[in-house]
Amino acid sequence: MKKTVIYAYTHLLILSFFFVGCQPKSETASPTYKDLTEAVYASGNVFPKNEYKVVANADGYLQQQAVNEGDVVKSNQLLFLLESLSQDARAEAAANIYRQAEANYADGSPILAELEAALRNALTKLENDSVNYFRYKALYDQNAAAKADVERVELAYRTAKNDVSARRKALARTKSQLYVDLQNTRSNYRVNAREGDNYRIRSFEPARVYEVYKKVGELVRKGEAIALLGNPDDVYLQLAVDETDFSKLKEGQDIVIKMDAYGDKVFKAKVTKIYPKLNKVDQSFRVDADFVGERPSAYYGLTVEANIIISQNPKALTIPKTYLVGNDSVWIEEGKEKKKVKIQKGVENFELVQIKGGLTEKSVLVKE
Q1: Cα 157 from Cα 160, distance rounded (Å)
Q2: Where is each CusB-like beta-barrel domain found (predicted)?
Q3: From residue 122, how far is each of 112, 156, 169 by CA, in Å?
Q4: How far is Cα 182 from Cα 59, in angstroms, rounded to an integer?
Q5: Burial status of residue 36 (CB atoms within 10 A of its CB: 0-12, 13-18, 19 or more)
Q6: Which residues contact 54 (CB under 8 A, 6 or more apart)?
Q7: What residues have CB less than 8 Å from 299, skipping those under 6 apart?
Q8: What separation, in Å, do the N-terminal and C-terminal C-alpha atoms of the chain show?
Q9: Domain of 68: which CATH number?
Q10: Which of 181, 236, 328, 353 sits most deeply, having the most CB atoms within 10 A of its CB?
């Protein structure tokens, strides 16, 4: 019985020494010189440049859809057609009136032909009455005709002369009125044609159709968007930067971009615009950037993660960030003792902190 107890005790003692001997020493490290880049994290999306929405300029039902998502369109290309029965009727009536006005003023116009014929008849009668008048006047001067006959033919001559003058004025007045009517009907026709264009939705410039909001048969109200379009050949980045990092930004800074859609592929960009208004919803500022070199295909809204390069130091004395105690201290080993010292930090990233004071390359860092 005693042997068993002694054996058991001895066994436990051996195990105790084993575990004590196997306890790991405190993890240590020393400051080293490394290439240290300070960057600000940003997230955002890729958007096409010059994006715009086409909207309806009149109420109507979508009658025809000439394009679909993904199509590339030219400038002033017909995209959608709205039903416009009342407008079509007005446009047709205006066109008919305009054509009639053109016919009334054109050469061979029935209205002008009738007035011109009446003028010619009046001129013929004037010529006859003129001959009669001067013949009777000559006979009267020779005492071969009665004064009453001369007065009668003179009255006919003067009446014919006045009739010609009146018919010439009527012809000129009618021509002038027909010209005014033609201009007015032409203006009315053009106005109706422009109003008809309100029912034909066209592109402003070459673009890709990214989204169509309406389907054929649906009612579209005036001012309502029908589709979203954008430049198919150029894209830019729209990023959100946290309020705490905003003061570090400036235009022209380099950016490194990654997108889920492109796996591990890295794109480069530069900051082009910094917006001064804070988005109170997520406490961020908007930053725009243009790609440098290779750019992704113009797909709308691709999600991106970005690092905006604030500074680069090719030879910075650094320590792993995991050795920091609080915000400005570390533990170091001096002889067989641990000592807590304050440091002067420089730039930092997710892994490293630059040491500007408080440590040397020979310092031995230990964790708590």
Answers
A1: 5
A2: 235-285
A3: 15, 12, 13
A4: 31
A5: buried
A6: 79, 80, 201, 202, 203, 204, 225, 226, 227, 229
A7: 46, 261
A8: 47
A9: 2.40.50.100
A10: 353
Name the one residue in this structure whose structure tokens are 């905003």. 246
DSSP reduced 3-state for 347: strand
Rounded to an integer, the average pLDDT of 257-278 is: 92
What CA–CA distances, in Å, run from 41 to 76, 199, 248? 41, 47, 11
Phi and psi, residue 151, nearest 5°: -65, -35
Residue 2 sits at φ, ψ, to 5 deg, of: -65, -40
pLDDT for the residue numbered 87: 66
- Contact 347/38 with Cβ under 8 angstroms? yes
Instruction: Walk across the sheet containing 225-230 and list its strands.
Output: 52-55, 225-230, 207-212, 72-73
In this structure, is the dihedral angle defined by the CA atoms of residues 124, 127, 131 and 136, taken in order, positive or negative?
positive
Tokens of residue 289, six digits:
């950037």
**Residue 44 is which amino acid?**
G
* CB 203 within 8 Å of CB 76: yes
Q: Is the pLDDT of residue 72 over 60?
A: yes
CB 48 within 8 A of CB 230: yes
Q: Is residue 70 part of a domain?
A: yes
Instruction: Give the residue carrying structure tokens 């010209």.
Output: 179
**Same-domain status, 88 and 167:** yes
Q: Helices in the chain by DSSP H: which ranges? A: 2-22, 85-105, 110-141, 147-197
Residue 186 lies in a domain: yes
CA atoms within 13 A on the CB side of 258: 7
For the entire predicted model, the pTM comes to: 0.55
Instruction: For 196-209, write each residue's pLDDT tens digit.
Output: 677 888 998 889 99
Could you count the other beta carbons within 10 Å of the beta carbon of residue 13? 10
Residue span of the structural domain in which 69 resides: 51-81+202-232
User: Is 139 contained in some domain?
Assistant: yes
